[in-house]
Amino acid sequence: MKEAEQMQNLEGAGAGRSVSTQTGSVTGQMPRLSKVNLFTLLSLWMELFPTVEKKQKLQVKKTGLVVVKNMKIVGLHCSSEDLHAGQIALIRHGSKMKNCDLYFSRKPCSACLKMIVNAGVNRISYWPADPEISLLTEASNPLSTGDAKLDAKAVERLKSNSRAHVCVLLQPLVCYMMQFVEETSYKCDFIQRIAKTQPGFNSDFYFECKQERIKEYEMLFLVSNEEMHKQILMTIGLENLCENPYFSNLRQNMKDLILLLATVASSVPNFKHFGFYCSNPEQINEIHNQSLPQEIARHCMVQARLLAYRTEDHKTGVGAVIWAEGKSKTCDGTGAMYFIGCGYNAFPVGSEYADFPHMDDKQKDREIRKFRYIVHAEQNALTFRCQEIKPEERTMIFVTKCPCDECVPLIKGAGIKQIYAGDVDVGKKKADISYMRFEELEGVSKFTWQQNPTEAHILGLNESETIENGLKTPELVDEECHQNKKLCLGNH
Ligand SMILES: O=c1ccn([C@H]2C[C@H](O)[C@@H](COP(=O)(O)OP(=O)(O)OP(=O)(O)O)O2)c(=O)[nH]1
Fold first, then answer.
1. Residue 92 and residue 356: Cα distance in Å, rounded?
2. Domain-by-domain residue ranges, the chain?
3. What is the pLDDT of residues 116-162, one digit of tens each?
């Protein structure tokens, strides 16, 4: 089969939902990220997982991997110093990988592929740039031994003799998707919290940060020289994609996804003293030691933000991801952390678009409001988790908005120890949904996006202007953020 044909549309296979919710343009709803693109983006993002390990060997590129079973994510991995992503997946999932779909941020090497194929996986999709055993590094090394090319050949041989479908799955973004992601990323709670609490903050910071990310990710995930890219595609068996219009389409799809990733990544930025901190000053010292490094917390929150673009709620997209930290370091590039589950807010599995009401609480008739039907992001993450939550381990949930009163007891009851979240809705009581219990919640550590309270203290913020978590004039901030947080298309 031609590789160009392999960039098929898989949405129908996985979404279990009517088409109208996919496109946005048909019904005027917000656009939605396809599952294939979500998995691909998460694999790229896993390649960027902040690791404390020493650099990888030059020729072997760090690789991100998403393991999917029945269209549900069951593993998020990245290479470690000693092991490739595919090897790690094999160690962690073993024969449970049978019939799984794997999404790699680079074409895996033969050492990984032979084991994965042997485990009976269903499909292996990879990002079509420089493979795991770098051809780019080899091309620029005059002393090269030709091993990368040899490996690429072996991979092709394994591919053609295997039952698994080894292919490139990239889909063009649906209409308005990029605009929507740009708008909602800038207006998301995290950026708006900074904008409203930092007198000197202007949008330039956000856009500069985004430009930097785009450059950085293009360097990493795109082969800048088109001829070189074509050569790589030829070597890895994608010669059918080297002709136009396939080649230019492929590069455009890749650029769009990189731009989307950079945009979402910039929405949880490394800005001054902002991060996920404990709101209760009495607990700061006690809890501080147990909190995650900020860059890891930000990384997981970006995963949750990506998931939110799969929402089925017309207005408010929410994403949640659960990670645990084991007692000792695992073989994964994520250190002791391992993936438990993830989700986004959506109507019950298997329902069709018109089965349930979609209205919000502005609708007078309470019977046709969405709230009694939509399953929350945290609820889906808990329901479809692939690992048990162990009471002796530190399990944490990352949610793009404050967990509501329905979800708070579920999170606590499930044995989750830490919540990383936005707090824009905290203390709000709406007609059908309330956010009162989060503040009162005890026995679970809460880390919300704010300026480091210790730094705020050192910087000498006026006491009368601060609340306990170090934020200024909360009423104004909350109201404006509330206005901005909606995932609606606005004037598109
Ligand atoms: O912990 C939570 C809380 C809410 N949601 C989802 C459920 C629902 O799909 C949406 C509700 O969001 P919100 O409270 O913002 O209500 P809204 O009616 O969408 O917006 P508004 O703030 O204008 O009332 O968010 C979650 O997934 N997890």
1. 39
2. 272-456
3. 999 999 999 999 999 999 999 999 888 888 999 999 999 999 999 99
- Read off the pLDDT of residues 471-491 as tens digits, 9 standing for 90 and up: 333 333 344 434 444 443 333
Report pTM.
0.89
* Residue whose token pair is 């088409």: 19
> CA 135 to CA 233: how far, in whole Å?
10
Write out the two tokens for 287: 């809890």
CA atoms within 13 A on the CB side of 149: 8
Which atom of ligand 1 lies closest to the CA of 376? 27
205: its two tokens: 């910071």
Probe residue for ligand 1, chosen from 314, 362, 376, 439 as the CB with the greatest number of ligand atoms within 8 Å: 376
| CATH number 3.40.140.10 given to 272-456 | yes
**Of 363, 446, 372, 459, whose CA–CA distance to 411 is shortest?**
446
Whose tokens are 């930097």? That residue is 212
Nearest to 98 by CA among 63, 65, 66, 67: 67
Q: How far apart are the first and last CA of the chain?
A: 39
| Segments of 70-138 assigned E as strands | 72-78, 101-104, 123-126
Sign of CA dihedral 349, 354, 359, 364: negative
Phi, psi of 175 (to 5 degrees): -50, 135
Ligand 1 center from residue 316 Cα (angstroms): 6
R_g of the chain, CA atoms, integer Å: 23
Is residue 306 within 8 A of residue 319, CB to CB? The reply is yes
The 8-class DSSP code of residue 27 comes to T
**Residue corresponding to tokens 């606590």:** 412
Degrees to nearest 5, angle at CA 253 with 250 and 257? 140
Atom of ligand 1 nearest to the CA of 344: 27
Main-chain phi, psi angles of 389, to 5 degrees: -95, 120
Per the annotation, the verdict on 479 as an active-site residue is no
